[in-house]
Amino acid sequence: MRIFHVGENPDIELFSPRPSRADGAGMGRALVWAIDEARLPNYLLPRDCPRVTWHWRETSLEADRAAFFSSPSATHGIAIEHGWFRRCAGATLYLYEFAPEGFRLFDETAGYYVSEAEQKPTGRQTVHDVFAALLAHKTELRILDDLWPLSAQIQASSLGWSMIRMANAKREA
User: Fold this and answer.
1) Long-range contacts of range 67-75, CB-CB < 8 Å, 24 or more positions apart?
2) Does residue 173 fall inside a structural domain?
């Protein structure tokens, strides 16, 4: 198993637990967060970019595959707003890898792992082209004016999903 932290900072040598937002999944605890390789595509975008993400899982219905994937080889989908396209296209991301032994599973569906101890990365990769990285992970990308209708449709489907930074998403009138 491989776990990562994805960020825009190129020079992190040690990850210290930071308090999570009290209203978030961490319930205010100080944690180091990581994501497993299966859900890594959800984070291959700039941190503040709002996105709707979905993925195929064993319990997903074929009708949902037909409705939300245009390619039979795709296993993930991500939608971003038009206004974020250029920032994403110009972004450089850094994937810090950790030894999984220092982490515990926090949320299997989301692929979240956490540690209450400081963690030193075992490696770092640079991603200069986030769209190419998404394609390499069998991820379809949609560029939309409004994420909210798709968000509601995905949440009502049998697919696995995550809505990330939606507080930053604009609301169409």
Assistant:
1) 67/153, 67/157, 68/153, 68/154, 68/157, 68/159, 69/140, 70/140, 71/140, 73/138, 74/138, 74/139, 74/140, 75/137, 75/138, 75/139
2) no
